[in-house]
Design a protein that fits this description.
The chain contains no helices and 10 strands. The chain is mainly beta and about 120 residues long.
Length: about 120
């Protein structure tokens, strides 16, 4: 049984230093024996919800990995993450970065802030 999370809508039209050029998704697998799979989708929310990114990460036990997506043309965006198993050993965080590769505090979404949803949007 998988579990799916969403960041909810993130506003991305605040000015050059507070607008994300890309969003990073970090997956940490604390399981000592099993690898995990994280399916990640990113959507632009410029009126219509349009998929702008789709990637699957396979993360070895006791390791982490990340991927990034270009959100520079998204006025608003959402990140959805599906974890292959119901486990508390896998943690996820999402970070927006500006054109200067600096973290944007308003685009930081930690595991505890992610909203559980029923399934990934098709």
């Amino acid at each position: 049984m998988s579990k799916v999370f969403s960041t909810g809508p993130l506003e991305n039209a605040n000015g050059p230093l507070t607008t994300a050029s890309f969003v990073m998704v970090k997956v940490l697998n604390n399981d000592t024996d099993d690898e995990t799979e994280a399916h990640i989708k990113v959507f632009a929310l410029n009126g219509d919800k349009i998929e702008i990114g789709d990637e699957t990460l396979e993360v070895e036990p006791e390791s982490s990995d990340f991927t990034s997506f270009d959100v520079s043309n998204a006025v608003e965006y959402e990140v959805q993450i599906e974890l292959e198993e119901e486990t508390d050993d896998v943690l996820v965080s999402v970070f927006g970065k500006n054109v200067d590769n600096e973290l944007i505090a308003a685009h930081r979404v930690l595991q505890s802030e992610l909203k559980k949803i029923d399934e990934l949007t098709d």
